[in-house]
Amino acid sequence: MKQIKLGLSAWRMGYHIAAWRHPSVQPDGSMDLSHFKAVAQAAERYRFDLIFMPDELAIRGEDNPEGARSRGSHVAELEPITLLSALAALTQHVGLVSTGSTTYAEPYNTARQFLSLDHLSNGRAGWNVVTSWGKEDALNFGHLAAPDYNLRYERASEFVDVVRGLWNSWDADAFLRDKESGLFFDPQKMHVLDHKGDHFNVRGPLHMARSPQGEPVIFFAGDSEAGRDVAARAADVVFTAKQTLEDAQAFYASVKGRLAANGRTEDELLIMPGLMPIVGRTREEAEAKHEALQNLIDPLIGLASLYDRLGDLSDYDLDGPVPEPKDPAFRSRAEVIYKLAQKEGYTIRQLYMALASGRGHRVVIGTAEDVADAMQEWQEGRAADGFNIIPTHLPEALDDFGTLVIPELQRRGLVRTEYDGTSLRDNLGLPKRGL
Ligand SMILES: Cc1cc2nc3c(=O)[nH]c(=O)nc-3n(C[C@H](O)[C@H](O)[C@H](O)COP(=O)(O)O)c2cc1C
Q: Where is the Luciferase-like domain (predicted)?
């Protein structure tokens, strides 16, 4: 039976927008190595294939309505590659995947950072390629806005090629380090990239030995046609956000369908949608856990989450109806959620609560069997090869998943009970890679 791949998105103190206020959560956890150590070691105890770090290059979002920003926890966090390098020394098996932008970095630096993480962890590193869309990110790198969409993807595509080229600077057996003869490496086994392209000129070679797993694993998070093309050509794993089985199946078929044209087989690229499980021993208990978190959402934060689509609603009654968007600046973006509010009869408070939980990812609230069924259905239905688990709050929601759902998945033979390799590629069942 094919096994379900499992990532844990170990972001901050969890994904729920009120996570930091939960009684079990250490509120300065996102700045504290001991918080991440506990999370990473628990992920390893539950036999996750990898932990995954999203990243942003700025404090995103305006302070709208005024005062909302000072109530959000996203303003203080550690740089993820540095953090994962520390976690490499505190774990043995779990993969360590960080997001890295192709818009605000140079390929030589990125190649070097991820390959260093790979060596420090004995072959457990992965790079989640993103193109960074935020205006706030742009402002920190000398731009007034994020570069044009097509330009970002052209650059991303070339960027990934350069990084992979640099990772292939040396054959695996290039370094002789022969004290007797005095020969440190075999010059035949060193490859100078000499890349000259539209966006980059990079000579190489990278001054670092080849990865213990051939190349670090490449993740790609992007949904557009351009994104799917780059993924099918260069990625090992695609991280995506899909709500329904039909949408996930269509995405799966679309990305896998592009592999043959790139000379690749279906098994060489894994698709892992995000999944937020809220697990209880009974469905009532799971619902109660969800509600407890929802009740912690500060109204200003709730309103801020609606701001970019509905504007400032702070003068309206939270428990009254959602007003029709009048400002033309918001009208086009507001339509979907305004219609949702009307259809469901949501108040403003109910609307932000309904949108708050999964940040666009699928949310499953129920027992271990419910969550395992939901995962199995998508895997068997060719909608997913695995899941990036998006915990509401850390580490408690991870422990709920690990102690309740993992044993159920193991009982069904859907996930491993022991690690059987040493590298992230081994964990994911991916072949060693090289150009
Ligand atoms: C599931 C998922 C996760 C993402 N994670 C990040 C992230 O951590 N940091 C970031 O800057 N962008 C992230 N992105 C944004 C993408 O890199 C990209 O800029 C955006 O999705 C627009 O491209 P697209 O239309 O191809 O999806 C993510 C996108 C998706 C779909």
A: 20-382
